[in-house]
């Protein structure tokens, strides 16, 4: 099962029996003739639509019937929303999710665990590079991450939240997360080979190729996590660490924290340091940078390879893909909320 990426502009997607028929128009500027591609529905796990693509009502209906999520991005790669199937019949899970969200003790504990997984995986990412380089700057970043992790576990669970608190009781946790992230991004440039420059993590809009790749990769990762949450039966818009607001998939953002360095950051470093992408694969506009059409294809190919690559699961011990790991984390979270296991266990790499 794979993700179907639709990015050929002005394409039309129709249902054709047990497949999607993708009609790609002629492009004289690129020297491309009209093409028709048939994609069997039984190999599609989710669909990502980027830019001006038309899906007919019958195509969308058959995707919903098969519980396949469709994610919509702008041409520049910014998330615009998702079309998800009706919630599963597991109403008990969603009730448990809402109850945990309204309990500051339960919410604080889960939020701390999400950040715990993120900080430990950030530290592992730098440790891997520092094994051969032994750079003092990287060693210092590792110590700063260790301090942030220690501070995180030194926090006391609040018994009461001031209604005027804009952080809803999560301020201390977010402070530790910010402390660790700052240590990580401050040294991230040392993980990159020349000629790539790094002046820190900047998001909206991304001012350089490295930030453009990170932002785009996180959008794709969010779509993957949101799909898995919908399959398990969660409400992806009610989170614990991230504040719930209109159109914001807060729970997807929570669960993806521990996967950011493991999947997206790793792929970005690979495509840049191995010269799979170069400066010609980016388009520069006033104040922002985005991937070119060819650059996007190359990056998505490597990202899909990462999602499909297998590792030995740190909890269960058998070999699974990273995509399957995301689903397993969603199911672990469901079991924790339903009281079937004592607490949620974050996904950690060695």
UniProtKB/TrEMBL annotation:
It holds the Pfam family Cas_Cas1. Mn(2+) binds at residues 177, 242, 257. One of its GO terms (biological process) is defense response to virus. One of its GO terms (molecular function) is DNA binding. Its cofactor is Mg(2+); Mn(2+). The keyword DNA-binding applies. It is an enzyme of class 3 (hydrolase). Its EC number is 3.1.-.-. CRISPR (clustered regularly interspaced short palindromic repeat), is an adaptive immune system that provides protection against mobile genetic elements (viruses, transposable elements and conjugative plasmids). CRISPR clusters contain spacers, sequences complementary to antecedent mobile elements, and target invading nucleic acids. CRISPR clusters are transcribed and processed into CRISPR RNA (crRNA). Acts as a dsDNA endonuclease. Involved in the integration of spacer DNA into the CRISPR cassette. Homodimer, forms a heterotetramer with a Cas2 homodimer. This is CRISPR-associated endonuclease Cas1. It comes from Herpetosiphon aurantiacus (strain ATCC 23779 / DSM 785 / 114-95). The gene is cas1.
């Amino acid at each position: 099962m794979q993700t179907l990426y639709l990015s050929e502009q002005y394409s039309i997607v129709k249902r054709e029996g047990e497949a999607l028929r993708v009609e790609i128009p002629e492009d004289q500027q690129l020297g491309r003739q009209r093409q028709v591609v048939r994609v069997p529905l039984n190999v599609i796990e989710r669909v990502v639509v980027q830019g001006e693509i038309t899906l007919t009502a019958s195509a969308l209906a058959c995707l919903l019937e098969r519980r396949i999520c469709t994610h919509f991005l702008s041409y520049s790669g910014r998330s615009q929303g998702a079309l998800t199937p009706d919630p599963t019949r597991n109403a008990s899970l969603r009730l448990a999710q809402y109850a945990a969200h309204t309990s500051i003790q339960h919410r604080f504990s889960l939020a701390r665990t999400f950040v715990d997984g993120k900080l430990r995986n950030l530290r592992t990412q730098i440790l891997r590079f520092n094994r051969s380089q032994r750079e003092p700057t990287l060693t210092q970043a590792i110590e700063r991450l260790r301090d942030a992790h220690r501070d995180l576990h030194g926090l006391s669970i609040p018994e009461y939240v001031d209604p005027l608190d804009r952080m809803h009781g999560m301020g201390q946790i977010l402070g530790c997360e910010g402390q660790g992230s700052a240590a990580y991004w401050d040294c991230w440039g040392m993980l990159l080979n020349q000629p790539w420059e790094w002046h820190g993590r900047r998001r909206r809009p991304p001012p350089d190729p490295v930030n453009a790749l990170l932002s785009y990769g996180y959008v794709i990762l969010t779509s993957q996590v949101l799909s898995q949450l919908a399959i398990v039966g969660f409400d992806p818009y009610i989170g614990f660490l991230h504040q719930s607001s209109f159109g914001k998939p807060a729970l997807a953002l929570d669960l993806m924290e521990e996967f950011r360095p493991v999947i997206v950051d790793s792929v970005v470093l690979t495509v840049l340091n191995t010269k799979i992408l170069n400066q010609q694969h980016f388009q520069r506009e006033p104040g922002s940078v985005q991937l070119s059409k060819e650059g996007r294809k190359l990056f998505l190919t490597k990202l899909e390879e990462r999602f499909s690559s297998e590792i030995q699961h740190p909890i269960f011990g058998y070999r699974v893909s990273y995509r399957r790991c995301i689903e397993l984390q969603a199911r672990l979270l469901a079991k924790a909320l339903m009281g079937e296991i004592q607490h949620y266990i974050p996904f950690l790499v060695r």
